[in-house]
Structure formats: C-alpha cells, structure tokens
C-alpha cells in the first residue's frame, strides 16, 4: 500500500532477493482557468503537491482560492499515477461598473444609464443641441485596478471627452455656402460681403453689377458701363438729346428748348424773346414766362410791387414779436419790453430784485417800525417789463395788516423800476383807512395807495373788505373836483383787485365798482398829450380828450404773450382813428380786440373813455341768469368774461343812427360765447 500520491508500480520476489518500486502521481497538463492565467512555473508534468498562483485577465477578478494544487485523481487506486489540478470553485469573474456616467451638456446611450455593466460594455456619447463631441465618442466599462486581482469594481472610461460648443471658425469652414464669404462676428459665423471692385457692389452677399453696368461674359465681378443711348427710344421726345454718362444717361433739351414743368419733355424757350417788367423775370425752368419775384405782386409783364406782409397779415411772427417789412420779404423783431435770448426767441426784459433800506427815508423808517418784525430792508422781487410786483417784505404777525406787502412797484418797459407805491402803515387796517378824512391831495394819494396794497392779494379779500374798500374809494373820489393820474391809477388797481375777489358777488358791489370806474374817468386830469392810460391785472382804461383828432376814434387791444394768464401789460392798449378788425395787423402787431366810436357820437371832441375788463367774477352766472337761444338750439348764458366799453362824456351813444353805430371786433377766443363770452357796451 502506497501513500497518497505514490503508486505501487511493480513487485517481484524471488528466492534470492526482493525488489519493490514506487512512482509519483503526475499532473500532465498545465492548469487552466477561464478568463484567467496560472503563474508561470506550473507547466504540465508537475508532481503531486505542486502549488500554482491563479491570476485573472484584465477586467476580471479571482473568485475563491487563488491557488491551484496538483492532487491524485484517484486516491483509492494505489496504482493510479494520474493527477489533476485542484482549485475548488475558484473562477475569474468580470468586474462591474456600478455607477452611471455623467457628462456635462451630453448624454450616453444604452446600456450606460443602467447599473452593473460588465467589463467591456460600451455606449455611444451624444451632445446636446449646439454642442459637439470633443474626444472619443464612446464610453467603455474598464477595470479600475488591473494590478489587483481582488478588485471587483470597474469604471466608465471615455478619456477627456467633453461636449463643447464648436469653434466659430470650424462652423464657418464647414457651413459657409459655396462661393460665399463667411467670418466670425462676436463668435457667430456670419455671411459677409466680399470685396467688390470694377463697378460692382455686394448684394445678397455676392458681387453684382451696379445699376447701369453689366458683367463681361456674365461675370459680375468685372462690370462695364451700359450705353443706354444706343437705343434711340431712351429719351421720351425727339426734342431731347441722349447723353451717356457712367452708370446712367441724361436727356437734355435741344437748342432753343427748355425742360417742361414736369421735366419729362422739352418746350420752346419763350424767355429768349420775353421782356419782363420791374421786379420780374422769365423762369425757363417752370412757367417759361415772366413771373414776379418772391415777395412781389403785380403784372410781371409791366411791373411788380413789394408785398407788405406785415400789413397784409401774412407774416408768421410769434406772439411777443413785431413784423417789419423789407423789400421782397419781412423780418420779426421783439416788441418793446422783450429782448432776444441766446436761443433766438424773444423773452421779457426783467427788472432785477432790489432792496431799499428802511433808513433811507423818514417815512420808510416809520413804515418798517410798524411792521413789528425788526425790518431793516424792504425787498422787491424781479418783475417782467410792463408789470407790477408787491414787496416780499410784509407786515409782521402781531400787526393789524398781517402778511400785507409794504409796497408795490412797477417795472417800466425799458427794464427800470418806477416810483414805489407804499402802504400807509402796518397798523392802519381797511376800517381805519375807510374812516379817514381826506382834506389834501397828499392824503388822497396816501389813502388810494394803501387801498391798492391792502387788496393786492384778491384771494384774501372777503365780502366785508370789498364793502369797506368801496366806501373808502368813494371818500377818495367824492371829495375832489379832479384827481391826479397817480391817484386814479391806484384807484383803478384797487377796483381791479376787488373784481378778482372770490366774494365779489356776495358783497353786492359789482355795479358800484363799475360806477366808480366811470367817476374816475370823469375826474382824472389829463396831461398835455390829452391821453391817460392805466393798466392793472384785469382792468385797463384808456382816455383821450379827442382834441386834434379827425373823424371817429377807437381803441385796439394788442396781442401780448400770456396776457390771459398774468394780466394786461402797460403797452397793450392803442388809440386808432379807424375801425380795426381783431386778427388784423396795425404797426406790425396783431390785434386781439377793438372798439370804435364814430364821429357822430362825439361831434365836439368830448372826452372818450375806453375800458377793457377781463374777469369772470364781474358778471357771475346765477340761477336767474338769462339764457339766450343759439342757432343750433343750444342755450348759452349771457355771462361775459371780457367786457369792452366806450363812454363819451356828456353823451348818450346808445341811440346813434343805424348806419353809424359803435362797432367792435373780437378774436375768435372771445367770439364763441359758449367758451369765452364777451360783452361790449
């Protein structure tokens, strides 16, 4: 009996001796494992007990014992010499890719998006729209650690593959159309024009012949001029001569002919024999006859005369400018009180702000003391030429006339300040002024000046104030046979202020104020010129003695910028010797409104007074206001916002002959009584 792995080979016994031989078990073939290798040194013919290391191919790992041993294939048979390699259940198993690959801006096809793929599995890489694959386009499951046969994990391998936006140059190289030129603009492949020469230009991204040119042998990158005159029908008329010019042609008139008015034909040149009059010429390019120069009218064959655009009213000067006629034209200049700005528009001349020291006059010192506010200076703000402003310095909180200005001042048309109209005292209120006894002209002027300042802010004038002021005005005008222009102007300004009071209607003084205006007109002493004019915010008066005038007499209200908003300006009223139409022109200025008194109304040249009142309080609409029917059946209230009146001293002019009535004219803004009614009397 032999030990395991040793076989009994032969046994011979004789009488003389005994020989016993033993043989080892042999593994004839080298060990084999699927997807694996055996360490070199274990070839076929290895004897029992020989050990070999088992290794796996790339992508596989050893599952089980990593050793193979040569063993007896039949241990029970003592004569068996065949051995086998024993490595139990050891095998080489595939490593697994247990994760899903990720690629920015790209995707993987099956099976990459499942878990547990074997070594060697692969899938296609695709990129999102606008991106292309840079690198290998497939991902493969590979062994994570080839040197370690125990490693079971694989990984997806795709090198440095990435999804990138294609380079602009690459796009241009592959996508630009044949015979076109492309270039990158802001990293975008854009078709661009090639450089075209020889009378060609780039159209639709390729060179094409310019108009009037054609390509040689159809090649539009080399173009030559087309001679259109080779066709005898190119020009429309036989009276025209065709002349070829580069890229086009022109038709000129034969000698003795000129282009027709529409330029499409030629007509006989009549100007060759025309003899035009003064300020006219023969225009062969249009009328082919004599015509007056621009700005002239008349018979061009005899003589043409200058058109006075200013008198005709055909000029286009803005408000605030005067039309001045020139030969053949006109120009605009600023009205008095306006000047040219840097932007070539007329702007008002402005009186600058001024400060008057209280110590400059004894009277002023007392007035400043009455303000009870430690006033040392009186300040007047800037003012436009032709308008008045009140002082910024006012009576103190503890005075009777709290917040009342200390004075009013007028800005002359040349931009200089006039004499100040002063308040009597901050402690002398309306009731005190109304109770004053007037014995001298100085007292009369002081009272009228104080009334003007005390009512300077109409919004604050209550109905009782209107009544008190009206009483005070009566004291001023009833105690004199005549009044000075200074006193009259203060009274008219005061009446203007009262007419703007919101409580005028409540006071019941409208009729009384109109009567007081008539009384002032009667009493005011006219200067040597025989003319008196007073202008306030919304009441203006113009008086003339009528002496030295022939025929009737009228008044025109001139257009002034913003007069509807800021009141009448001092130069807005003008005496006329004839009826004038609103909208027409006088002395280069447009007329806003006018009124005319015929000679029959003032045969002895009596004093004539004109009033213009722009006011909505004077005749305020009430429930009892009379409604007048209009031609379209609507109703309109006789509630004027503009009043124009004419009065002849000691004459009744309401019963004049039918053919010699008082006449008036209003611009359309006052003529439409549904919007801005007017009243004339």
Q: How many whole angstroms does the radius of gyration measure?
A: 59 Å
Largest sheet: 6 strands, mixed
Number of helices: 11
> How are strands sequenced across the largest beta sheet?
12-14-16-17-11-13
What does it look like?
The chain is an alpha+beta fold and 681 residues long. It has 5 domains: 6-94, Complement Module, domain 1, CATH 2.10.70.10; 96-164, Complement Module, domain 1 (Ribbon), CATH 2.10.70; 228-268, Laminin, CATH 2.10.25; 309-348, Laminin (Ribbon); 431-680, no CATH class. Helix content is 14%, strand content 35%. It contains 11 helices and 55 strands. The strands form 21 sheets. The chain has a 6-stranded mixed sheet with strand order 12-14-16-17-11-13, with no helix packed on it. It has a 5-stranded mixed sheet with strand order 44-45-50-53-55, with helices on one face. Helix 6 packs antiparallel against helix 7, helix 6 (463-478) runs parallel beside helix 9 and helix 7 packs antiparallel against helix 9 (510-523). The N and C termini lie far apart (166 Å).
Sequence-ordered SSE layout with sheet pairings:
Layout: E1 6-13, E2 18-24, E3 26-27, E4 36-38, E5 46-47, E6 51-56, E7 60-63, E8 67-72, E9 83-86, E10 91-94, E11 96-97, E12 106-108, E13 117-118, E14 122-127, E15 132-134, E16 138-143, E17 153-157, E18 162-164, H1 168-175, E19 181-185, E20 188-192, E21 200-203, E22 206-209, E23 213-216, E24 219-225, E25 240-245, E26 248-253, E27 257-259, E28 266-268, E29 280-283, E30 289-292, E31 296-299, E32 303-306, H2 309-312, E33 321-326, E34 329-334, E35 338-340, E36 346-348, E37 350-351, E38 354-357, H3 362-370, E39 377-380, E40 383-384, E41 388-390, E42 407-410, E43 421-422, H4 430-434, H5 441-454, H6 463-478, H7 485-499, H8 504-507, H9 510-523, E44 531-535, E45 539-544, E46 553-558, H10 563-566, E47 573-576, E48 585-586, E49 589-597, E50 608-614, E51 627-629, E52 635-637, E53 642-648, E54 663-666, H11 668-671, E55 678-680
Parallel strand pairs: 11-17, 53-55
Antiparallel strand pairs: 1-2, 3-5, 4-6, 6-8, 7-10, 8-9, 11-13, 12-14, 14-16, 15-18, 16-17, 19-20, 21-22, 23-24, 25-26, 27-28, 29-30, 31-32, 33-34, 35-36, 37-40, 38-39, 41-42, 42-43, 44-45, 45-50, 46-47, 46-49, 48-49, 49-54, 50-53, 51-52
């Amino acid at each position: 009996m032999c030990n395991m792995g040793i076989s009994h080979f032969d046994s011979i016994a004789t009488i003389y001796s005994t020989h016993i031989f033993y043989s080892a078990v042999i593994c004839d073939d080298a060990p084999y494992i699927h997807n694996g290798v055996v360490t070199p040194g274990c070839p076929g013919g290895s004897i029992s007990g020989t050990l070999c290391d088992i290794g796996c191919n790339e992508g596989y790992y050893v599952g089980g014992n990593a050793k193979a041993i040569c063993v007896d294939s039949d241990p029970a048979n003592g004569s068996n010499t065949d051995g086998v390699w024993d490595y139990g259940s050891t095998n080489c198993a595939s490593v697994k890719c247990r994760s899903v690959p990720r690629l920015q801006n790209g995707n993987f096809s099956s099976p990459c998006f499942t878990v547990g793929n074997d070594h060697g599995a692969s899938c296609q890489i695709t990129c999102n729209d606008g991106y292309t694959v840079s690198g290998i386009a497939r991902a493969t499951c590979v062994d994570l650690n080839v040197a370690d046969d125990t490693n079971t994990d694989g990984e997806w391998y795709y090198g440095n593959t990435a999804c990138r936006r294609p380079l602009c140059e690459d796009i241009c190289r592959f996508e630009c159309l044949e015979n076109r030129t492309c270039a990158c603009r802001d990293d975008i492949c854009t078709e661009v024009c090639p450089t075209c020469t020889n009378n060609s230009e780039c159209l639709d991204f390729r060179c094409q012949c310019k108009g009037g040119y054609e390509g040689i042998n159809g090649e539009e990158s080399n173009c030559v001029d087309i001679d259109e005159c080779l066709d005898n029908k190119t020009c429309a008329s036989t009276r025209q001569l065709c002349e070829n010019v580069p890229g086009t042609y022109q038709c000129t008139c034969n000698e003795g002919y000129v282009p027709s008015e529409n330029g499409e034909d030629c007509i006989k040149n009549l100007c060759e024999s025309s003899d035009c009059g003064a300020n006219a010429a023969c225009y062969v390019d249009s009328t082919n006859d004599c015509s007056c120069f621009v700005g002239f009218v008349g018979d061009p064959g005899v003589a043409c005369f200058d058109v006075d655009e200013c008198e005709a009213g055909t000029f286009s000067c803005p408000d605030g400018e005067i039309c001045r006629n020139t030969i053949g034209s006109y120009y605009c200049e600023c009205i008095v009180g306006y000047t040219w700005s840097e932007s070539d528009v007329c702007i008002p001349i402005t009186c600058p702000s001024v400060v008057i020291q209280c110590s400059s006059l004894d009277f002023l010192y007392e007035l400043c003391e009455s303000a009870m506010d430690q006033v040392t200076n009186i300040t007047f703000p800037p003012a436009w030429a032709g308008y008045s402003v009140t002082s910024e310095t006012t009576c103190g909180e503890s005075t009777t006339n709290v917040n009342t200005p200390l004075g009013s001042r007028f800005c002359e048309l040349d931009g200089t300040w006039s004499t100040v109209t002063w308040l009597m005292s901050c402690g002398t209120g309306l009731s005190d002024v109304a109770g004053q006894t007037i014995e001298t002209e100085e007292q009369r002027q002081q009272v009228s000046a104080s009334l003007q300042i005390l009512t300077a802010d109409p919004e604050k004038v209550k109905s009782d104030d209107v009544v008190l002021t009206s009483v005070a005005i009566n004291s001023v005008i009833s105690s004199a046979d005549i009044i000075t222009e200074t006193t009259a102007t203060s009274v008219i300004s005061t009446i203007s202020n009262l007419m703007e009071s919101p409580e005028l209607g409540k006071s019941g003084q409208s009729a009384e104020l109109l009567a007081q205006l008539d009384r002032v007109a009667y009493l005011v002493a006219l200067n040597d010129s025989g003319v008196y004019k007073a202008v306030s915010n919304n009441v203006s008066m113009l008086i003339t003695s009528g002496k030295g005038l022939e025929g009737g007499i009228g008044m025109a209200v001139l257009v002034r910028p913003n007069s509807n908003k800021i009141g009448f300006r001092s130069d807005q009223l003008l005496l006329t010797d004839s009826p004038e139409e609103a909208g027409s022109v006088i002395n280069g200025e447009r007329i806003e409104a006018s009124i005319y008194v015929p000679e029959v109304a003032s045969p002895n040249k009596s004093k004539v007074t004109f009033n213009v009142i722009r006011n909505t309080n004077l005749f305020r609409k009430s429930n009892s206001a009379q409604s007048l029917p209009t031609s379209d059946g609507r109703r309109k209230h006789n509630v004027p916002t503009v009043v124009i009146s004419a009065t002849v001293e000691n004459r009744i002019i309401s019963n004049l002959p039918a053919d010699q009535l008082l006449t008036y004219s209003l611009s359309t803004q006052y003529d439409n009584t549904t919007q801005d009614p007017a009243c004339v009397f």
